[in-house]
């Protein structure tokens, strides 16, 4: 897929997407909340920043959860990619078994983070913002139907921070995505995926699942 600097704002479900992926579904995640969903090997999913400058914490666990004990791992991904720079088109995120789980097939932001933890209650309490919604609790809340009991289970997995500009903060803002920017991943293992966000002025994002995978 051709790399473009920014995606058009109508990329939630373009006519081409709908024709190629009639089984696709779009879920709007309210700002400051989380969402969890299962994905099947051979399909693709997309995360879209609807309003711009919204960071999304992405975590995933290989099914069946929690018995598989296998999850998306940023430390193993950094090792596989030989550093902490954002993945390029065709690169894979890997699990704690050092096996690929998602392949990046489209990216209209090109700026993401693989080093920061998910914000949690203590993170905001230290800033005198006790009770502030946070990524770890949002993800745990979304994962409750799969049996997650505490946000501490979420914090055991470092997230892939979609649209987070940690590597180049001297050059541009922490949140630098524009309205309509998105990332798309091909699914390489059956998994449950969770995303959450709660920092700053949280805005809605869209998650599109069931997309037909394209060769990259």
Descriptive report:
This protein has 216 residues and is an alpha+beta fold. It has five helices and ten strands; from the N terminus they run αββββαββαααββββ. The strands form two sheets. A six-stranded antiparallel sheet has the order 1-10-3-8-6-5. A hairpin with a 5-residue loop joins strand 5 (92-94) and strand 6. The protein starts with 14 loop residues before the first helix and ends with a strand. The relative contact order is 0.33.
Q: What labels describe this entry?
A:
alpha+beta; 4-stranded antiparallel beta sheet; 5 helices; 10 strands; 15% helix
Mean pLDDT comes to: 87
Rg measurement, Å: 16 Å
Coarse morphology? globular
Note the beta-strand portion.
Answer: 25-35%
Unreliable runs, pLDDT <50, ≥5 residues?
1-6
Q: Regarding quaternary structure, how should these chains be classified?
A: single chain
Task: Report helical residue fraction.
Answer: 10-25%
**Mind describing the biggest β-sheet?**
6 strands, antiparallel
Task: Measure the end-to-end span.
Answer: 7 Å
Order of helical and strand elements: HEEEEHEEHHHEEEE
Record field, number of beta strands: 10
Task: Give me the side-by-side strand order of the main sheet.
Answer: 1-10-3-8-6-5
Count of DSSP H/I helices: 5
**Structural class, please?**
alpha+beta
Please describe the topology of this protein.
Blueprint (H helix, E strand, L loop, with lengths): L14 H6 L4 E5 L4 E6 L3 E7 L6 E7 L11 H7 L11 E3 L5 E8 L13 H5 L9 H9 L7 H5 L4 E3 L19 E6 L3 E6 L8 E8 L4
Antiparallel strand pairs: 1-10, 2-9, 3-8, 3-10, 4-7, 4-9, 5-6, 6-8
